[in-house]
């Protein structure tokens, strides 16, 4: 249709009207000749010939005059659309799935480094111009979007005829018949090369910084530098976003620092920090080894609603003053992690474990007949027993496993594990090490153990309750045992 309109527009307005009027008259006269011969046996009939000339001449002139105005209008619309596409670097395409025919607007050809309508476009030909590294992903996205009956948007590279590489953003919408079968796909192709190159240049500048640098609107993380990935232990921002939406999800809830609990309802943390005094722009976060760090924040508007936020690690100064890791997160007597650490960081620990496709396991244990130790030898000896017990257990588990003093003589080990059976084996290993160890003054002690795995969508309190029930079973069954729930 576009080619037909283009051809007619090249004729010119009046030439089109006169040409098609003459065609109409000639066709009319020819039909009249046939009618005369059929009815009278004679080709020529003067009256019919005159009527056959005047009527189509008049009506044809009017009809083709109106159609010429319509074609002029459509041509102008088409020209305006082409101009808009050219200015915006946006091309339009339409794939007729039934006929397996693909239409490209002139701008699509231009984006691909080709002359307008240089060849008849096909889906296979289109894929030939897609960068080999993006071809499979793009084709897969197209196929899956049809199966899921959804639109898609994707950015990919194209290799122009000259060999130059451009980046395009492609959007696609599908249309289906009454049986749900795909009929056609229509979409746009937008040249985003300059935007991508600008973003890559900005990323390189980000990565040169030793501080953690991010781009965010306060709700979603949009960009981050290598220092960010190194600190949290992720290979890419995309991997981080599979678990979190914002860096603020990693802020430790501690009133000595800024955290989300200090953000008024309806506000976002970037807005609050931007207006806060410099001394209040300090947050604490755990690194990939679960060590606490303190950061001073600087924040600046970037574009639209985005901010560039810089996190400067001031841990050596502020953590020395606050003794954050020892006094806030560690039990002062045994040096094991404390319950406060667990409650404020279990979400981060859990998601970090799931990132590795493993299970979060809990081993809850306590000292059998610990009251007898205190009553017989005194509380000082009891304290020494707990200190030694922590050392024995730490030597029995991996460095990345987390030992927490839950309260009194009760402890929890949080660990990344493959199965419940493997978790029971670890608990049995700890039980044996404790049983065989010689403790000063008291000689030997034993512990009872309850083990369980965290289940998706349950609260961590439910997991702890199940571990506690398993521990209770071990006590009831005679102590110095491992039970699971």
Short descriptors:
485 residues, alpha+beta, Beta-Lactamase, 4 domains, five-stranded antiparallel sheet, 22% strand
CATH top level of the largest domain is Alpha Beta
CATH superfamily of the largest domain: Reverse transcriptase/Diguanylate cyclase domain
- Tally of contiguous helical segments: 17
CATH-derived architecture of the largest domain: 2-Layer Sandwich
For the report, how would you describe the main beta sheet?
Answer: 5 strands, antiparallel
The CATH topology of the largest domain is what? Alpha-Beta Plaits
Account of the protein in words:
This protein is of the alpha+beta class. 48% of the residues lie in helices and 22% in strands. The chain contains 17 helices and 15 strands. The protein has helices at residues 2-11, 13-40, 46-88, 106-111, 123-129, 132-147, 193-207, 226-232, 237-241, 269-275, 315-322, 324-328, 339-355, 370-377, 379-396, 420-436, 460-476; strands spanning 90-96, 101-104, 152-159, 165-176, 182-191, 212-216, 221-224, 282-286, 292-301, 307-313, 359-367, 402-407, 410-417, 447-453, 482-484. A hairpin with a 5-residue loop joins strand 9 and strand 10 (307-313). The two termini are 71 Å apart.
Quick recap:
The protein is α+β, with helices and mostly antiparallel strands and 485 residues long. The chain has 17 helices and 15 strands.
Secondary structure topology:
Layout (H helix, E strand, L loop, with lengths): L1 H10 L1 H28 L5 H43 L1 E7 L4 E4 L1 H6 L11 H7 L2 H16 L4 E8 L5 E12 L5 E10 L1 H15 L4 E5 L4 E4 L1 H7 L4 H5 L27 H7 L6 E5 L5 E10 L5 E7 L1 H8 L1 H5 L10 H17 L3 E9 L2 H8 L1 H18 L5 E6 L2 E8 L2 H17 L10 E7 L6 H17 L5 E3 L1
Parallel strand pairs: 14-15
Antiparallel strand pairs: 1-2, 1-5, 3-4, 4-5, 6-7, 6-10, 8-9, 9-10, 11-13, 11-14, 12-13
């Amino acid at each position: 249709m576009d080619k037909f309109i283009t051809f007619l527009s090249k004729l010119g307005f009046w030439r089109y009207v006169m040409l098609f009027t003459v065609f109409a008259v000639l066709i009319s006269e020819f039909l009249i000749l046939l009618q005369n011969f059929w009815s009278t046996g004679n080709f020529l009939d003067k009256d019919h010939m005159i009527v056959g000339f005047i009527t189509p001449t008049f009506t044809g002139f009017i009809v083709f005059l109106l159609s010429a105005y319509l074609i002029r209008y459509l041509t102008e619309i088409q020209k305006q659309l082409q101009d808009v596409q050219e200015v915006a670097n946006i091309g339009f395409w339409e794939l007729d799935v039934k006929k397996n025919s693909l239409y490209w607007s002139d701008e699509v050809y231009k984006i691909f480094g080709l002359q307008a309508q240089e060849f008849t476009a096909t889906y296979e030909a289109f894929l030939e111009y897609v960068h080999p590294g993006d071809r499979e992903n793009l084709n897969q996205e197209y196929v899956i979007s049809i199966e899921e009956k959804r639109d898609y948007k994707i950015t990919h590279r194209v290799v122009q005829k000259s060999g130059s590489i451009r980046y395009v953003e492609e959007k696609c919408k599908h249309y289906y018949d009454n049986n749900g079968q795909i009929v056609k796909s229509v979409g746009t192709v937008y040249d985003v090369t300059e935007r991508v190159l600008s973003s890559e240049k900005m990323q390189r500048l980000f990565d040169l910084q030793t501080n953690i640098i991010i781009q965010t609107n306060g709700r979603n993380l949009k960009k981050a530098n290598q220092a960010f990935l190194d600190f949290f232990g992720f290979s890419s921002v995309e991997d981080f976003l599979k678990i979190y939406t914002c860096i603020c999800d990693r802020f430790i809830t501690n009133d000595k620092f800024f955290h989300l609990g200090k953000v008024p309802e309806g506000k976002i943390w970037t807005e609050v920090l931007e207006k806060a005094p410099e001394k209040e722009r300090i947050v604490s976060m755990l690194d990939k080894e679960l060590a606490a760090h303190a950061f001073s924040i600087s924040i600046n508007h970037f574009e639209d609603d985005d901010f560039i936020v810089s996190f400067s690690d001031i841990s050596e100064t502020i953590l020395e003053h606050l003794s954050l890791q020892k006094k806030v997160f560690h039990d002062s007597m045994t040096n094991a992690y404390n319950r406060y650490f667990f409650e404020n960081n279990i979400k981060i620990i859990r998601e970090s474990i799931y990132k590795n496709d493993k299970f979060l396991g809990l081993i809850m244990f306590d000292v059998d007949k610990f009251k007898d130790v205190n009553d017989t030898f005194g509380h000082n000896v009891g304290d020494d027993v707990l200190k030694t017990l922590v050392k024995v257990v730490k030597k029995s588990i991996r460095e990345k496993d987390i030992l927490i003093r839950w309260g009194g003589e009760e402890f929890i080990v949080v660990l990344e594990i493959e199965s419940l059976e493997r978790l029971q084996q670890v608990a049995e290993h700890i039980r044996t090490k404790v049983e065989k160890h010689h403790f000063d003054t008291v000689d030997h002690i034993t512990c009872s153990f309850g083990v369980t795995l965290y289940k998706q969508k349950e609260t961590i309190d439910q997991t702890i309750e199940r571990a506690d029930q398993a521990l209770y079973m071990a006590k009831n069954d005679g102590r110095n045992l491992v039970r699971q729930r």
